[in-house]
Prior knowledge:
The chain is α+β, with helices and mostly antiparallel strands. Helices cover 49% and strands 18% of the residues. It has a four-stranded antiparallel sheet, with helices on both faces.
Amino acid sequence: MTRNLWKGLLLFILLPFLWAQEGQLIDKVAAKVDGETIALSEVEEAYNLYRTQVSQKEMSDEELRKYVLDELINRKLLYLVARDDTTITVTDEEVNQALEEQLKSIEESMGKEQFEAELKRQGITRDELKKEYAELVRENLYVNKYIEKYVKPKIKVTPEEIRKFYEENKDSIPSRPDMVRLAHILILIKASPEKEKEAEARARALYRKILKNDNFESYARQYSDDRETADLGGDLGYVDKSAFSGELRDRVFALEPGDISEPIKSEYGYHIFKCSEKRGNTMRLSHILIAVRPTPEDTARALNRAKKVMEELKKGADYDALVQKYSDDTATRDLGGDLGWMPLDALPSEIVNAVNEMKPGDVRGPILAGLGYHIIKLLDIKKGGKPSFEEISSDIQNILYQRKLDERLKKLIKRLKKKYYVKKYI
């Protein structure tokens, strides 16, 4: 496992306050390292973060807690040796700057309004939060400076080592897929207003039943049109905030553990969400989907609209201008429909078949895929296959460098455990 806590020493420092359950944990000592204490709450905070990143197959709860405690001990050992080094100093200004950078990162990730609302819910100001975590940030800055000064300068990766690694592993290096950069004009197949109202009415009636009977999972199994999750009681697992966009994201992430949302509209229909757990930018969610099902007439209407766009293109209309005028994909409309680089084999088969017959600059459509008709433009293509040594040498260098850093840190920790007193209490 490569998730050493000293590799991203500020990563989890400020996140735990966002999902801390006040009053649930009576803090006690988890370990002592010389005169320094590691609290049980620190272990639980780090455990909660890493549990969202490490599968149960990779590590059980017990194994992960042990791993987290060991890594916190290792970090504390590195702090002690750095603090005792008179050539290393950390100023209050550096601590404040690091705290501000972390707060800004969290604020950008969450959104300013939600971040401020979370501070208010926790009953803590921005300055109080900084004060609470200042010493922990100071410790991590000491550790980073020590590693930069004494560990990293001793690590060298030679061209011979890079070449040797490549020759020994080139057969197992995975091939890269063909990559394509596409633009599209999306014409959604939109259900009639009558179908929309019908689905919304069904969703609201179901919402009222759920509130009355408190049996979300049972209703999900019985009524949800998302059959992949229906048999799981609607369970979506842990979902990152980035999986949603716009108003949908704001409404979903306004939920607190135990909350059930009113029906929320998406391109798929009406969702009723249940929040079971909230960890910063991650939530444990379940949902019931009441789909809005278009009629054949709705599909024909969308196809006719897409054909009209193609006719305008054939007459010489500008593609970017038609994206602005017609595309229902609001996320790419202002980008000329640009979808960015994507693996070709990750696209729907209907799109893949068209792209295989295109060259950069070509336009094809209408193509029915997903929720509507696409008029695609191939902007560029990169052929895949086995990467050459030149293409992958910098990646190999990074791999070898990290291995050597890990080895040096392990040896250093082993020596420090002989120098400083360490005792676990859990």
